[in-house]
């Protein structure tokens, strides 16, 4: 399914465009498919990655020469990214891989954003099974956690590093901590800005401002647009 989604997403890549590479396993399938298009069809691209993980994937599949840092581009034509949960009113939660800050930097600026995800990620209520990730300055993590729980309720948890090789909290690509918040009720569009306004919050995995995104979902019957 990820390959089907990746193949469909590659159809959005135009010759000479600046392409944002999302993060996660579905975005990695896209990176692989893109490398095939570049090698076989000679499509020229400039690439901006949303995580170190995606940069490494791009390097692995031969796309390293096309990678530039986000500050080296003036605009982004297309971004292709995954999501953890998508609501029917087209908001999504990202950050299962801890990359939501750079993902938002790139995805929100892309002229066209294509979200690719397996259909089970479409939910009636956001969040359903996943927390809302909140990236915080390390020194502020506990104060932010208290602010969030006091104002909205629910439960926050400091994301632990479960990868082995390091004890304690997970450190994001940006050197920050991540709080995973399970709110007591559904997310609403204004929540994105309300959370971001808390001192110490860098950004969150709640994406409520790209309702214009092309959302491609896949199940055993194939790929379809939301
Ligand atoms: C990483 C993300 C990913 O896009 C999200 O977690 C989906 O990943 P996958 O395609 O592996 O299910 O937001 O921060």
From TrEMBL:
InterPro entries: NagB/RpiA_transferase-like, Ribose5P_isomerase_type_A. Keywords: Isomerase. One of its GO terms (cellular component) is cytosol. GO terms for molecular function: ribose-5-phosphate isomerase activity. It is an enzyme of class 5 (isomerase). One of its GO terms (biological process) is pentose-phosphate shunt, non-oxidative branch. Its EC number is 5.3.1.6. Gene3D superfamilies: 3.30.70.260, 3.40.50.1360. It holds the Pfam family Rib_5-P_isom_A. This is Ribose 5-phosphate isomerase A. It comes from Thermoproteus uzoniensis (strain 768-20).
